[in-house]
Amino acid sequence: MAVKFKQKYSAKLGEKIKQIRLGKGRRIIDAARKTGLAAALEQPLGEFFGAAEETAPAPAPPRISPVVQRSQGKTLSPGKGVTHHLLNPDLSGPIEFIYNVYEPGAGTGAGQYSHPGTECGLVLAGELRVTIRDEEFLLREGDSITFNSSEPHAKMNPGTVNCVCVWANTPTWF
Question: Potential cystine with 139: which of 121, 135, 143, 154 (Cβ 3.0-4.6 Å)?
Answer without folding.
Answer: 143
